[in-house]
Specification:
Shape: globular
Strand order of the largest sheet: 1-2-4-3-11
Radius of gyration: 20 Å
Oligomer: single chain
Structural class: alpha/beta
Largest sheet: 5 strands, mixed
Strand content: 15-25%
Number of strands: 11
Number of helices: 6
Length: about 260
């Protein structure tokens, strides 16, 4: 269950009461937006008190992200694996984005610059939809292929617009993958899939889990994990995050 609250210092914060969560968690996305999640047994009042205590931490990390993750506006050099971005100024009243035949077409009023906030927001929405289509076309097959190759058994494969993590494995061995995995180099996408498949055998990150992951990645699990930390799950995934970034998805804080 999600809702938006307006904090007097931080501004808008997305608050999520999450089934299965065991602790309060605070995260800041690369765009500076703040998300606060808490377990079902923790009251919103207590969660917001935790938020109050972390105002200085949030402010400091927002400033850091402005310099670390600042990016140029989307332009027509942007490419996914199967789609290209195109801006079309036209005699229209509002900006729209449609995905068709390998193109992400952003049609906007001629008076608006392609770098304007409205047009850029539409571009991001269109890119996300293109990635959703690509991920649904490729990732389930990748999971099936790697599961068969290494002798894993898993349930369904679900693609979501998750930005907090690349993937997860449920207690029923269903695999959830972020649609932004579709932007990663193939060897890193396969590493994420293998990571989640290993969780069908070991639900924790124990030595046995890491031993299995290392075997199925040919002894490269640590190397691949280090490389993955240079990326983050969002539409700019193809742009490397700088060394020393606290997390590939932004800053995180837990009690």
């Amino acid at each position: 269950m999600k809702k938006t609250v307006v904090h007097p210092v931080i501004g808008e914060v997305t608050v999520s009461r999450t089934r299965g969560a065991t602790r309060i968690s605070l995260s800041i996305r690369p765009d500076g937006s703040v998300r606060l999640s808490h377990p079902m047994f923790v009251s919103q009042r207590r969660a917001l008190k935790f938020l109050d205590e972390k105002c200085d931490w949030i402010a400091a990390n927002r400033l850091g992200m402005e310099s670390r993750y600042g990016a140029e506006p989307f332009d027509e050099t942007y490419r996914t694996r199967r789609h290209t971005l195109h801006f079309v100024p036209a005699k229209v009243e509002k900006t729209t984005a449609k995905v068709r035949e390998g193109r992400i077409v952003v049609k906007h009023p001629a008076a608006l610059d392609a770098a304007s906030k409205e047009v850029q927001a539409a571009a991001e929405k269109g890119i996300t939809e293109a990635l959703r289509l690509e991920a649904k076309e490729t990732l389930p097959d990748m999971v099936a292929g790697l599961a068969a190759q290494h002798g894993f058994a898993c349930g369904s494969v679900c693609v979501k617009a998750t930005r907090s993590k690349w993937g997860s494995c449920t207690a029923r061995n269903d695999i959830n993958l972020s649609l932004f995995v579709a932007l990663l180099p193939e060897h890193l996408a396969e590493y994420i899939v293998l990571h989640e498949l290993c969780h069908t055998v070991h639900k924790d990150h124990s030595e046995r889990f890491h031993g299995l992951l290392d075997r199925v990645t040919g002894g490269r699990s640590k190397e691949l994990n280090r490389e993955l930390r240079s990326y983050r799950p969002d539409v700019r995934c193809a742009n490397r995050a700088p060394k020393g970034a606290s997390s590939p998805t932004g800053a995180r804080k837990s009690p």
